[in-house]
């Protein structure tokens, strides 16, 4: 089990103690040998492995890039969003860490069961609202007195933003997120039990001269059905699967029923526009192919066969006499 990482101040203090003789290297070694017990907080049960946390980080780094493009287009100003941290904590700790009055967008993400939360700092929310209303991107930063119009404007903005989450998660699962409700007081949230583990993805967002945080809270129970898909093995493996024999038979039948345009080229000719304008019924057009030369049969626009003209049951027809290898046109 890896040891704790020391800060620079702690390292300097240890070096100072060794140089002054307050502590010897042997005493430090004995102290390290006696420390065989590590405190574990059962209230902070780690439900996700480091590998899975890295996968969640990659997904939401892509989400941050998509959000940057989306909000820049909607607010018509400089926007920068990046992932600050990805942590797994109890739900109760998440509720305590956010302001008493903030903007809480609660989304459902079918086919997954449960809700996820997008918490938007009041400074960020009102900067966005000010930009949408034609301002420079500044706001009072209070959400306890939002009007119905302000609520509707922000609801539409954040609801459309979660279309980008669908794209960010498309490599793992096809979800269809939609906004179910909006709250301003985290004490009213009764989604899951306080001790339930959640993943909190924190984003730093800069809007012009304003900055703040956006947090996305995803309970473990929501991700539990797809947790195995968050491993590196799943990311590295190809999604391409060989068709079953039944699928191959069906595919072959469908291909055989496909219709393709088949044309026979008698030859090519050239004339002036004036000659073309005076063409009449019975006029003869001189072509570049001799009468004894084979004709070219094309499938679509690709030459595939040579043929000779003739009649079949009183109708004009061609008889295939050879196959053109590689589909290269040969008019000689």
UniProtKB/TrEMBL annotation:
It holds the Pfam family FliM. Residues 254-324 form the Flagellar motor switch protein FliN-like C-terminal domain. The keyword Cell membrane applies. InterPro entries: CheC-like_sf (IPR028976), Flag_FliM (IPR001689), FliN-like_C (IPR001543), SpoA-like_sf (IPR036429). Gene3D superfamilies: CheC-like, SpoA-like. The keyword Membrane applies. It is found in: Bacterial flagellum basal body; Cell membrane. Keywords: Bacterial flagellum, Cell membrane, Cell projection, Chemotaxis, Cilium, Flagellar rotation, Flagellum, Membrane. It is a peripheral membrane protein. Belongs to the FliM family. PANTHER family: FLAGELLAR MOTOR SWITCH PROTEIN FLIM (PTHR30034), YOP PROTEINS TRANSLOCATION PROTEIN Q (PTHR30034:SF6). This is Flagellar motor switch protein FliM. It comes from Sporosarcina koreensis. The lineage of its organism: Bacteria, Bacillati, Bacillota, Bacilli, Bacillales. The gene is fliM.
């Amino acid at each position: 089990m890896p040891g704790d990482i020391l800060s620079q101040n702690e390292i300097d203090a240890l070096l100072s103690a060794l140089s002054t003789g307050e502590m010897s290297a042997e005493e430090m070694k004995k102290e390290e040998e006696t420390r065989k017990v590590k405190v574990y907080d059962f209230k902070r049960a780690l439900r996700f492995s480091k590998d899975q946390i890295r996968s969640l980080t990659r997904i939401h780094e892509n989400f941050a890039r998509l959000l940057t493009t989306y909000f820049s287009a909607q607010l018509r100003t400089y926007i920068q969003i990046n992932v600050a941290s990805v942590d797994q904590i109890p739900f109760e700790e998440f509720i305590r860490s956010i302001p008493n009055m903030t903007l809480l967008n609660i989304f459902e993400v079918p086919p997954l069961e449960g809700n996820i939360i997008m918490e938007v700092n009041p400074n960020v929310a009102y900067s966005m609202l000010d930009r949408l209303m034609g301002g420079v991107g500044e706001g009072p930063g209070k959400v306890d007195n939002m009007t119905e119009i302000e609520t509707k404007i922000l609801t539409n903005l954040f609801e459309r933003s979660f279309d980008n989450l669908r794209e960010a998660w498309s490599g793992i699962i096809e979800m269809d997120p939609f906004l179910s409700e909006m709250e301003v007081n985290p004490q009213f949230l009764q989604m899951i039990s306080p001790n339930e583990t959640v993943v909190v993805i924190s984003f730093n967002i800069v809007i012009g001269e304003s900055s703040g945080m956006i947090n996305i809270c995803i309970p473990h129970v929501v991700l539990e059905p797809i947790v195995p898909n968050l491993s590196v093995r799943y990311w590295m493996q190809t999604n391409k699967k060989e068709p079953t024999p039944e699928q191959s038979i069906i595919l072959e039948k469908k291909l055989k029923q496909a219709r393709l345009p088949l044309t026979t080229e008698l030859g090519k000719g050239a004339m002036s526009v004036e000659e073309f304008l005076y063409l009449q019924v019975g006029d003869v057009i001189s072509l570049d192919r001799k009468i004894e030369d084979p004709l070219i049969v094309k499938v679509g626009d690709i030459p595939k066969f040579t043929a000779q003209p003739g009649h079949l049951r009183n109708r004009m027809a061609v008889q295939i006499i050879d196959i053109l290898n590689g589909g290269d046109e040969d008019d000689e």
